[in-house]
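Appendix C: a fully annotated inverse folding record. The material below is reproduced so that readers can follow the format used throughout the book. The structure is listed first as tokens, followed by the designed sequence.
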């Protein structure tokens, strides 16, 4: 028998108590909406909250109205994202967008009655990857909802999808948690030392899902450390050394994106340090180094570096030559004395 999903008074979620409370009350009062849009950055908990909603709405042994037992077939199945009445759609590997055919197939499936649960749950992940034409394929379902269907969409923000879709959904905007709130929750959930919990909370920039993944996959923290070490060694490097690094680092586009996201958080920390803001660095284990760089390049230098990394990340979403894009970025980064 599968283990029950981890629960607490907040549906097992880390943070977002207001959203859980709202959904719990809707279930208890039998006034669930037919469509929800969960927005926020990747790792904030959009998918997790949608699956918890699915479990709570279909739980067969709720300890109280709006709660979930975590042990029944519905709770286990929806909790791990595998249930006969869960229809999941997302962009397939190698595709640039969610295909219209996938959403049309979803619409046809939603005309059927649930196989065993009270509600059939349609979960479309990262709906911002759907073209406007594909997104419009869901409009009929949104306009004429089946009472036994709950449609859950996730996206970075409401502005990234058609307004015609947004207007037909109840929007729940999830935001990163303050590190001071996430750290103790991680310590309790993971059983790690307080210092490690603080590091996970800060490095993840308040994203519970990312913090959990960093804990579960230590190699990610090792890669982060290597990328920050590389950045530190590049700042006093000459053009030849920077170009040699670009040649190696540009071979894997997805790995390059991950590295630049880490660099982006670093330059944000430098910018905050240079501005004199009393904000704890996301890369708290590099605080002394960040302070030193901020003092050397100042606010404008940090802002320029941050903008350069942001621009390069945007370019990598196009067909840009990765090596050329990284070479240009490295030329724009500040040069520090050895």
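Designed amino acids, in order:
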């Amino acid at each position: 028998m599968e283990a029950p999903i981890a629960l607490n008074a907040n549906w097992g979620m880390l943070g977002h108590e207001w959203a859980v409370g709202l959904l719990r009350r809707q279930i208890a009062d039998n006034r669930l909406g037919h469509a929800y849009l969960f927005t926020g950055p990747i790792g904030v908990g959009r998918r997790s909250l949608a699956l918890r909603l699915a479990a709570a709405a279909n739980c067969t042994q709720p300890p109280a109205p709006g709660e979930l037992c975590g042990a029944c077939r519905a709770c286990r199945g929806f909790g791990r994202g595998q249930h006969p009445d869960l229809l999941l759609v997302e962009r397939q590997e190698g595709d640039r967008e969610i295909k219209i055919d996938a959403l049309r197939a979803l619409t046809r499936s939603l005309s059927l009655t649930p196989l065993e649960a009270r509600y059939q749950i349609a979960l479309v992940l990262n709906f911002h990857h759907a073209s406007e034409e594909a997104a419009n394929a869901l409009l009929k379902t949104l306009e004429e909802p089946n009472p036994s269907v709950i449609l859950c969409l996730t996206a970075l923000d409401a502005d990234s999808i058609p307004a015609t879709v947004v207007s037909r959904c109840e929007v729940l905007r999830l935001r990163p948690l303050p590190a001071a709130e996430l750290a103790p929750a991680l310590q309790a959930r993971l059983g790690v030392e307080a210092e490690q919990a603080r590091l996970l909370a800060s490095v993840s920039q308040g994203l519970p899902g990312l913090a959990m993944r960093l804990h579960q996959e230590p190699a990610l923290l090792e890669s982060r450390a290597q990328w920050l070490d590389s950045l530190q060694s590049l700042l006093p490097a000459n053009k030849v050394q920077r170009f040699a690094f670009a040649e190696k680092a540009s071979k894997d586009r997805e790995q390059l994106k991950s590295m630049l996201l880490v660099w982006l958080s670093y330059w944000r920390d430098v910018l905050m340090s240079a501005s004199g803001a009393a904000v704890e660095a996301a890369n708290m284990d590099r605080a002394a180094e960040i302070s030193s760089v901020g003092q050397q390049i100042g606010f404008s230098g940090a802002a320029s570096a941050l903008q350069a990394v942001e621009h390069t990340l945007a370019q990598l979403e196009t067909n840009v030559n990765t090596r050329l894009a990284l070479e240009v970025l490295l030329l724009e980064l500040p040069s520090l004395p050895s």
